[in-house]
Fold this sequence. Notes:
- This protein has nine helices and five strands.
- It has 231 residues and is of the alpha+beta class.
Amino acid sequence: MTKIKDIPMQERPMERLLQYGVESISNEELLAILLRTGSKKQSSKELATTILSKLKQVSELKEMTYEEFLKIEGIGKSKAMILLSAIELGKRMQRNIETIQGKKFNQAKIIYEYYRNLLGDKKQEHVYCLYLDSKKKIIKEKLLFLGTINYSMIHPREIFKEAYLAGATAIICIHNHPTGDVTPSKEDYAMTYHLKQVGDLLGIPLVDHIIIGKNNYYSFFENGDFETMKE
């Protein structure tokens, strides 16, 4: 095993960063700096190379989970958490909107700009509900479901219970399509129609249902689907 201390000083990742600038060092070197130390069998740089060898491209790092990192020999809990934290920080820095809390809802694009980086690359469907006050400001966000969606598992009781607890006067539902195609499915229409009926009955209307894709979105309200549902 080649240890970092055995590598000539000018070739070590941190020294190269200082000498040439962070933009000039390789992906392996960036990962090695985050890892700081290697394992009994590999140096930090060799461990970084092992991680990247399991990917087709470095951008796939942002899709890796805690469990997937732990499966790599030499990656323990601490290293996995450091890598996940660095990846998450990078995602948050890309967001045009820092937080959705307190934002006033006046168009679906505001919701899309926030959730596109949060959900755009997810391999599983995520269902969120946003709770709004009387001025249409978002007062609460809740993840309702994660995984392959079976809408029978998303019960209106839980959605509107949270609305009462938060003192919300309206709700917005959001979910992503991992395929990137934001065209609503029959199940999407059925869910929207059902929640709209319940919301109107309880006096806490569903004001939009937004499907998030990688590069676009679909708003039931903006596309006039809510008007059709009145018929």
